[in-house]
């Protein structure tokens, strides 16, 4: 069932994303836009860290994006600027405010859906 099948319902798939943004190594994010909102699926490969793989693209001292993520697979540790940390695992939903670094934990890629303020994530300045 496609976009035209039911009037008013907009359907997108990550199999054909509207945009893919590669990180500076160790992964990429696919973006779909539906209903005026952006949803991302990030594939963060082992060894990925925001400060090494996204910071060179966007600048700044820490990630300034507000995330609302659902972890599909793998694990990620979030390091907040205030020193607190949280590890995310499959099946968990997390609201992550701006002001953080993050890294993949272990030897498995972390794949997560992000419904937050993600439209500008990993977009070159």
Automatic annotation (TrEMBL):
Q: Taxonomic lineage per UniProt? A: Bacteria, Bacillati, Actinomycetota, Actinomycetes, Micromonosporales
Query: What start and end residues bound the annotated signal peptide?
Result: none
* Protein name per the record: Cupin
Pfam families, alphabetized: Cupin_2
Q: Which domain of life is it from?
A: Bacteria
Domain called Cupin type-2: residue spans:
67-114
């Amino acid at each position: 069932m496609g976009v035209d099948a039911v009037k008013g319902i907009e359907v997108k798939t990550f199999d054909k994303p509207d945009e893919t943004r590669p990180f500076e190594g160790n992964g990429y994010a696919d973006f779909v836009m539906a209903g005026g909102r952006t949803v991302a699926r990030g594939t963060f490969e082992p060894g990925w860290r925001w400060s090494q793989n996204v910071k060179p693209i966007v600048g700044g001292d820490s990630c300034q994006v507000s995330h609302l993520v659902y972890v599909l697979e793998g694990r990620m540790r979030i390091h907040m600027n205030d020193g607190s940390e949280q590890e995310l695992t499959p099946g968990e939903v997390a609201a992550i405010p701006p002001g953080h670094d993050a890294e993949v934990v272990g030897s498995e890629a972390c794949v997560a859906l992000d419904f937050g303020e993600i439209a500008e994530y990993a977009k070159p300045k």
